[in-house]
Amino acid sequence: MLKKFNLFHSILGIFFKNRPYDEKEVEISSEAYFVRAIKLDDIKDLLSIEREVYAGELPWTKTAFLMELQAAEPHLYLLIKKEEKTVGFIGCRIFGKDAHITNVAVLTHNQGKGIGSFLIREVLQFAKNNGCETVSLEVRISNKNAQRVYRQLGFVSNTIKPNYYTENKEDALEMILYLKEE
């Protein structure tokens, strides 16, 4: 999931400014949630969600989260809470005219309620605000449920990346959403 970004990407970060995310209460499927930017103190919750969602695996380590949250390049990392418990998160980083979703996870018992879709729409708005033309992500070939959600949001299949996931050598499907000018 963690993309290796080159020197060009680092240089681009100088031209963008991370705008603060205004925390807010939202209603999703008639339930109240609270969404805000991720802070360094939240990493423990993110790792816990990863362990549950990815059957004990940690696709991202504490160090990976720390690096992303402190990166100079434009990025957006959000978490969503229900009754003070973190139930999901998303992250993206801008690379040129593309906002790349680096990670998205929702606790299993909270899936299917529209939380992931809400978080992705927040990223789409961030991408538009930063002049992006596309939003991209990788998803496991075996994760048909996530692929269905992404397609419903307008993502299309692009390429297959062989052996993308290092822990089990599973292929990834790269998906892209082309942002329309309004």
TrEMBL record:
N-acetyltransferase domain location: 33-180
CDD domains: NAT_SF (cd04301)
Keywords, in A-Z order: Acyltransferase, Transferase
GO MF term set: N-acetyltransferase activity
Domain of life: Bacteria
Annotated InterPro entries: AcTrfase_RimI/Ard1, Acyl_CoA_acyltransferase, GNAT_dom
Pfam family, one: Acetyltransf_1
UniProt xrefs under PROSITE patterns: GNAT (PS51186)
Regions annotated as coiled coil: none
Name of this protein: Ribosomal-protein-alanine acetyltransferase
The organism of origin for this protein: Enterococcus caccae ATCC BAA-1240
